[in-house]
Batch of 2 targets.
Target 1
Amino acid sequence: MDRIRIQGGKPLAGAIPISGAKNAALPLMAACLLSDKALRLSNMPHVADIASMASLLAQCGVDVHMDGDAATGCPQGSVLTLCARQVTSTEAPYDLVRKMRASVLVLGPLLARCGEARVSLPGGCAIGTRPIDLHLKALAHMGAEITLDAGYVTARAPKGGLVGARFAFPSVSVGATENALMAAVLAKGETVLANAAREPEIGDLARCLAAMGARIDGIGTDTLTVHGVESLNAASHAVIPDRIEAGTYAIAAAITDGDLTLQGVKRELVAALCEHLEGAGVAVTETPAGLRVHRHNGALVGIDVMTEPFPGFPTDLQAQMMTLLTVAKGAAMVTETIFENRFMHVPELCRMGANINIHGASAMVRGVPQLRGAPVMATDLRASVSLVLAGLAAQGETTISRVYHLDRGYERLEEKLQACGARIERLKG
Ligand code: EPZ
């Protein structure tokens, strides 16, 4: 298994191109199942999760074509054309869903287009139990008959297809909102999804569906109203920039006392992070090239952070922000409200000299002057990248094992960091 080796202590400087958002791209890919016409997605990130979703779609009979775009200078793999002319399988098997939970996003589209779908239950994962009950409840409100058997969910639409309905999510779920939204675009009549998630990735999905001919009101708000249509057309759509990748590199600038510009990123995409960074003594300015991030006057100060659904502070940046706070002056309280087990990075950070105590859903971080390099182990995508950040700031050498987690969601991580002066390399094996 590959490892990553970092010689820390070097301030990063330069500009980092931000890739398309993995978490926007995955539901966009699933949306191709709603139409028998081609969906062309550009600005696709080249990461392992996209390849997993492509395999799942291919298995459903989707024609998957990966390309570059010479006209706009897009590299090979950044343009994906998906055509579900004929869906030949309506099943998402355990092996694929287990590897990548976002596979459950094919449930809504398959059910809406084919009238049935059989999707493996994902099971637990490193950061929490992560049930899919809200996905199923929303679909049941549209008339789906849902049965659970042998670890699989089978969903069947009524004879005439799904029927529009009003559904208020009892709590906010990104994936359940996406599944329900995709199902609703082909349901008969009007669907109202209240207390819907407002993450930018949902806005991106809704805009792509609209380009395919769906009729959706309230995009960007917590109430989505969908007027069902008979069928969807061909469309082209560019994936939004990855706000979590951008946020990760913003924190890399701050923790190494460097100066980075995150190309193509606007402040509004990462507004909650910017406010928190500013509170911690980091300057964030919008420039024509992107968002510029550097420390105000050298010192970082501790601030409290609580994760919340968008527009609050994203759970996917909690581990990275906590890493920054390990070297800030004073104490900071980090509270995780989205997932029940998302502090797996804490023991690893402590091995590098951090002072962190967990109390239930909160972690008390007392800043230390310096982290020290150590061998550490990645446990999930964001925990892994938080260890990269720690390694970049630490004195001495850090090696991170199990980096396949990183490959699921960060495109060309070492290359992007090396270009800004980081001493980071991948050790094959
Ligand atoms: C999406 O996961 C993201 N994944 C996650 O990113 C992200 O952490 C999460 O949203 C929250 O922002 C993708 O977009 C592919 P949820 P999702 O449904 O949709 C509970 C990363 O690192 N819940 O909003 O699975 C759930 O257990 C990943 O890139 C139910 O109880 O998240 C959690 O506590 C990790 N029942 C909370 O809601 C349900 O049916 C929010 O989960 C669904 C969710």
Note: Residues 243-255 form the longest helix (13 residues).
Target 2
Amino acid sequence: MFLRSQRRDLMTPRSNVPMRWRDEVSRILITKAELHRRVNSLAAEIERDFAGRELVIVSLLNGTVLFLADLIRRLTLPLRLDFMGVSSYRGGTEARELIFTKELRLDVRGRDLLLVDDILDTGKTLACVLAKLGRLKPKEIKTCVLLDKPSRRVEKVAADYVGFEIPDLFVVGYGLDFAERYRNLPFVGVLHPNVYLNGAESMTSAAK
Ligand code: IMP
Ligand code: MG
């Protein structure tokens, strides 16, 4: 269930983008304050749902770094944290095949898992990681994503906790990247098309 305020559209004016990022970000989709409020309420939901249990959080690298750091510092329930490295974007905006760059180290058999990712897009990443985790026989797996782009879904997968539902736009910031850039932006913004047009050119010339 989404509140109307959690559905983001293109109403935020370009002038909201700090001067430093105006050539690269067309507009801010989710402000720092909105992220802060929503992450707090997600943490409260998780805290309530998992009360009295120890949680194992499995977070997908690299896009979850900012979201995860903010989320877990709001949690007071006992938890252990581990990471899996998954890469599906090879420097562009179109998905390629999935590569595991870091494997899980904790034993999760019989545990309550919370799988955290930055964004649920086609669903291929989450579907693949869920299948892999399922083979490790945890007691339960719940999923939490900061952003959800339901219009792009290919796999039949939904997250249990969703920060914001967004339209089909390529977004960066608050951990999300384009070719490993823009993860440090404190807001979620729409990537300016100039960036991936120029980026594709410079990557082509670098490969030559
Ligand atoms: P999926 O496998 O198509 O669901 O894609 C999930 C992964 O694709 C995410 O973990 C992101 O790394 C990446 N991704 C999808 N959409 C975006 C976007 O708009 N900006 C940045 N990364 C994205
Ligand atoms: Mg990612």
Note: The longest strand covers residues 79-87.
